[in-house]
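Bench notes, afternoon.
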Amino acid sequence: MTDPTKDPRILRDPDAATPSACPVQPLPAGSGGRPGYLVTGYAEAREALGDARLSKDTAAFFAGEESRRRLHPAVAHTMLASDPPRHTRLRKLVTKAFTTGAVARLRPLITRVTDTLLDRWPTDEPFDLVAGLAKPLPVIVICELLGVPPADRPDVQRWSAELFAAGDPEVIDAASHAVAEYMTGLVAAKRRDPGGSLLDRLISARDGDDRLSEEELVSLAVLLLVAGHETTTNALGNAVLALLRHPAGLDRLQRNPDEIPAALDELLRFDSAVSTATFRFTTEAVTLGGIKIPVGAPVLVALGAANRDPARFPAPDRLDLNRDAAAHLAFGHGIHRCVGAPLANAEMEIALRAVLTRCPGIRLAVPADRLEWRRTRLVRGLASLPVLA
């Protein structure tokens, strides 16, 4: 199934993803032979994300189909690719790690890591904000949370990037096995020598009398590891670029850094780190935006386009820090809304505050139209962001 949200124009310019007059559009059949539908309107996207008739159980959708893909089951069948009651049970076990209180206890770590990374910022030459801050910060934080040893983190980061690689199934499949096998080994090591990490708590966690199976444990660990930093990396880079391209907003937050938490919703809406929500399909006929979608049809929800829907956000292509953008869909909606959203918000707030206060003269080191965007599945982010202090 072809996904028009991967058009190179949209990688460079999110304005190109603004919804058309038709908020639900048919897509041609891809290699699987099934035509699908693309949802770009805000109201329709929010409805689709909350509709239980749109299943995320990819194992059920592809059951019986021959496939050349060799994704590891721990990656193919995560909590994200499941429906209640399984999804409800698994999510309940990880939610406690990302409550407001739990994230508040992580803020000193996030601040310390941010300052350490920015201390390496050269004063007289360009600095890649993606490689030097946006990538390593969330990797270090989620690895600390899960108990991944420092020596292993470069491999974790590489495998994660490869999992989101666009157009190279062999690379994606190989990365899925590498990261799953690594997490299987880490779980075994923690069973031999328990500690106090989130992974240790998941190993011992129970939901009533039900303990996580080995496959569920590894799958949750992989999901938290990958989702726990990939989207935050892109969101932070996108937010800094948005401010650099809108000097009035940049100046406002530099003069009033206490406004940064309130500005995050608009920054996340303006350039969503997740351009397209993960796979869904209809379990019965559904009508969205006046379009009847038959049973068994794949549905792609374009979060980035929905966040630029003028019917919900007037003048959506303008960064407006006075806008009430709390209803944005950058973290999704409904039972599958990103469980790590509080952590992502904390990392973005702390990192943006540090960058804007420590680097009052920050500016792009290259013209904006020369910036390179990553070619990835689902997410939208910069390959690099060269800046000068």
